[in-house]
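hey so u asked for the seq, here:
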Amino acid sequence: MKKILFICSLLLGITLLQAAVAPGENILVNGEFDMEDVTHLTGLDMKSPQFWGPTGATQNINILDKNVPAGKRIVQFIAPTGSKSDEVTLRQMDMTLVPGGKYRITAMVKTTGFKSPHCGITVYNSGWAEELGIVSFPENQEWTRMQADITLMPSRDNWYGFALFACDFTGAIEIADVKMAAISEDALKGSKVSELTRQLAQPRLVPWKPLLHNIPLHKDGKVPEMTFRFFGKLPGGEITDYSVCYSVNGGGTLEVPLTRQEIALPLPSVTTAGDFMLAVSVVQKTTGKVIYMRAHTASAFVVPETSDKGHRRLNNLVVEVLNAPLAKSADAQKFSFSMVRSGWIFIAAKNAEAKSLEIKLDGKVTVINANTPRLENFRDVLIGGHTLEITGAVNGGTIIVRSIPEIFNYCPGINNGVPENPKFDWEFQKKYVLPAVTTQNGGNIPPENRKEFFDAGYKWIANLGTVYVKSDVLPQRLKTSTGMTSPTYQGVSCDEQFFNSLSSILPYTEGMKRFVPFNDHVIYTWITGMPSIVGLHNDFIAECVNTCHGRGRLISEVYCRTQPTLEDAMKYLNTAIIDKTKAYKSFYPDILQHWGIILGDFNQIPILSLAHHSNVDYKYYLDLQFNILANHPECKDMAITGYWGSYYADHELHRWAFMLTRHYCVEGKKTMLSDVYGLSYDPGHIKNGDFGNGFDHWTISGNITGGKHAGFASRSQNRWGGNNGVGDTFALFTKQNDEVSTVTQKAPGFVPGKAYCLQFSTVDFNDVKANRLNPRLFGINVTLGDGAQIRNDLSWVHVDKREKGRYAQNNGVARCNLHHIVFIATKPEI
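ran it, structure tokens below
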């Protein structure tokens, strides 16, 4: 087996060194938008063409079967009637092209009332710094073959992608038969057709269900079984000409037919719990030729008795499995509860006397005693029955146990980069985060506090860089990583992989196949985008969730930037959260038991921020995202959720974020926490705060004009994730003698007695134009009307003095001042 695996790796290396492209050959994969292999061969429900990765407002993408002049399938971008669509993109990445080479891009295009300030059928370089191709379309045009000949621009690391995209568009554009061909000698010699086409031809037998280490032994004597799915192409003949051959621990070979559906492998020799070796292969019946083979370590287990009797579902994420009164007694009281799946529980003794209280889980571990904060705790437990033994409940009370999702936070103990914020130290963690988290990732937990942390049942996993790590390097990197070897940690998160990048997904998948777990630590895999490539992405997901005896987690980065209106936000979140969840569920069975959405809670301008629109209350927006997870039926029983970027949140939002996880993931609420505090998506306090509509809603005095500079918001303020020009506009104050210039507007909608925060940033426009790093305090201030009482102890001005920002685009650019003014409203309008 080792020899065969080595040969397969060698062959893979050879195929990567492919020949140059031929004249007229399409460098793009599936430029005809064919979906035959997806829908007919696999039965999976796909919403985009194979090999094209969708992003943005994907609900506005349609795949049509119309018969255009070229006779090809059509991609349609269509805005809702009477309104604009946000950015829509279909991409291919990791293209091998030649800088300075000449290429021809062609496509059939039809437009109907189409208008967009930024759109195209283009090749782009690293960071999408530049794009070349077809970038202008008539508003109304019947089917026309459009063409652009380009000389390819340079790119960092010679990385290129290809995209069909339209931003802020109205009407519809339809695209068919997209091609990119090399037309110069150097481009013909140096370009390559994507390795994706070859990889998709590779036969793959993917473990399907149950997980390899979760094969149940049935008490009724029924033979256990494991199912697989076959992907890829056959070297010849029909699928009925092939069989799946398999054996357990090198024993006798069994055989079942190869199909494109689930392939059940009965395991009659597996009669006892424990690990075993399951070798599988795909064999051509007539010749005996083996086209695929692999050995898996698998495990069988005796399914414990479970019951959901007495369980009460609180929301999608939380089920109350025990709620019982405590007798007023110092004597032992015993309670039982059942878990229908392995996972985290929340245990709480409500209204109990702490002084002599002790609660043991399963007769072994003390989970609550007199020193336990709030008389509550979290534990990760197995499926089946459990007991709580309680002594010292002299004041009575109630014992509560809830099945909850794993609540994730990246990362603890790191301050956010704007030092005027309070520190996010251990005391902050204890007060605001630990009541609503189970798993901390990366960061710092002080050595003197780690025993307290682990005794309380929490998990800490390290973070490991695995971006574009080669398949033969990944196993050793994991094996020697601190997260996998140190008793300080319980595992490692691999940061990060990209669904729309072959050079990310392929080596990671192959590297995980080679990695052999050696202890009880776990691996979490960070992933961006949504699965779309049948076979390759199914294989990737299977490796991520089957690793570490089936305790691997796949964690999806879903960082949602604000939208201008609540209606826009709901459409955007439906795509970002619900469509993504549906895609995962179509690509792997029972995936919600092993996967979850990690939201972004970072809002700290100028460090990193998802808060792009000045009219939006980001606290409400983050609440809205969690409310979808807690209530939408597609998200029921999601295994893990939480945040990335807590250390890039300001102090207020950091605290609010974990009030939300407490509200939804611990207390199991369905209603929005914002309702309790009277928050709304657009509270209406400030209108046109970025001066995107000139001086609408503002009164100006003095020498003030409107200004705009492309990229200002993303570079100097780091509004993250493609802001489409939001925030690139501003009011430009030009000093003139001793004249005072002002912009003013009335701010309504305040509740007297409540605290509010006004933030704005200032910068020297000459620094912006010159791309000059020159941090200093600028002479622009704010005056609030008599309806506001400023809290000077909580207000500050931050001068950004960093030489380097988080990303390369933030290095050496004009630096902002961030004004942060906290005030108590004394009137409804200021």
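Residues 566-587 form the longest helix (22 residues). The radius of gyration is 29 Å.
lmk if thats what u needed
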